[in-house]
Design goal:
alpha/beta; TIM Barrel; 8-stranded parallel β-barrel; two-stranded antiparallel sheet; 10 strands; 16% strand
Length: 314
């Protein structure tokens, strides 16, 4: 199915505008109706473009037909600047499947492969995707941490700035995810004073001055959600994210897409835990899921306004 039939947009024009006006497009992961609705409503109310990110495991969880039904039900139009993006596609086949389902953007993650193999895989995906006007993201460097079955690594390696021009030119991709010290999951920092490698970001941006760069593993891990989870029976000690001021600093450079997943998970879980603990007599899913949904909405609005700088960019 053609993504344009859903009213979706690919990310090429969106990223060009983000680069020109110095903002980042939020890429929020979703997994069900509640999380999707919260994200889309937040983007609509703040007049922000948004990327709806779906991992392979989330796609399996929701089911292909149900996912397409939910996207269809959004009644989008191109001017809404909403993209549907496959996050961390693990193979050429998974990217092809997403494109056939109606995704407007795909990421092929060959970051753990040797450089030449990563190039070959990214080029294969880009050659196929561009036939359907679908945009392609690939990754250089490896992020540590665990967030999904396809996004886990015990080690990390920074992006080598000397490789980026060759990689982009050889693959014909549309955006590049780089590793500068972010990580997947809710435990990104051992201490609050750890800094991202802005020297690497500066070097990459110098090599690719007008090319869209992407940050994965860049959730800020809002501490009020962590506190609420722990207060109502959770165990999230030492959960720590990327400092907001560092994310804002990255946006001032070529970072025009920031992926956010863990923040939404924390927001939703905090709402559900608080509701079920404080109102143990209530067993209506609509009630406790609504608080989780509201938390995600509030957090998305906060990050759109105060991190992404994407408010009123439609």
């Amino acid at each position: 199915m053609d993504y344009k039939d859903f009213g979706l947009a690919n990310t090429k024009k969106i990223f060009a505008d983000a680069l020109a006006r110095h903002y980042a497009v939020p890429a929020f992961n979703f997994y069900n109706m509640e999380t999707l609705s919260a994200i889309v409503n937040a983007a609509h109310d703040t007049k922000s473009p948004v990327i709806l990110a779906v991992s392979e495991s989330a796609l399996k969880y929701m089911g292909e037909d149900l996912l397409r039904g939910m996207i269809w039900g959004l009644n989008l139009k191109d001017s809404d600047k909403v993209a549907l993006h496959l996050d961390h596609g693990s193979s050429f086949e998974s990217c092809v499947n997403a494109i056939k389902l109606g995704f407007s953007s795909v990421m092929i993650d060959g970051s753990k492969l040797p450089f030449d193999a990563n190039v070959a895989l990214a080029k294969q995906v880009a050659d196929y995707a561009h036939q359907y006007d679908v945009s392609v993201e690939a990754e250089l460097g490896v992020l540590s941490g665990i967030e999904d079955e396809n996004t886990k690594s015990e080690t990390s390696s920074y992006t080598n700035p000397d490789d980026v021009v060759s990689f982009v030119n050889s693959t014909n991709i549309d955006s590049l995810a780089i590793a500068i010290g972010t990580s997947h999951g809710a435990y990104k920092r051992k201490s609050d004073d750890e800094e991202l490698r802005f020297d690497i970001l500066d070097a990459v941006a110098k090599q690719l001055p007008d090319f869209p760069l992407v940050l994965h593993g860049a959730s800020s891990i809002p501490q009020h959600f962590v506190k609420t989870i722990n207060e109502f029976g959770g165990k999230m000690s030492n959960a720590r994210g990327i400092a907001v001021d560092q994310l804002k600093r990255a946006v001032e450079k070529n970072i025009c897409k920031i992926n956010v997943d863990s923040d939404s998970r924390l927001a939703f879980t905090a709402g559900v835990r608080e509701f079920l603990t404080t109102k143990p007599e209530n067993f209506n899913p609509r009630d406790y899921l609504s608080l989780g949904k509201q938390n995600i909405y509030n957090n998305c609005v906060e990050e759109i306004k105060n991190i992404m700088n994407s408010e009123n960019k439609l």
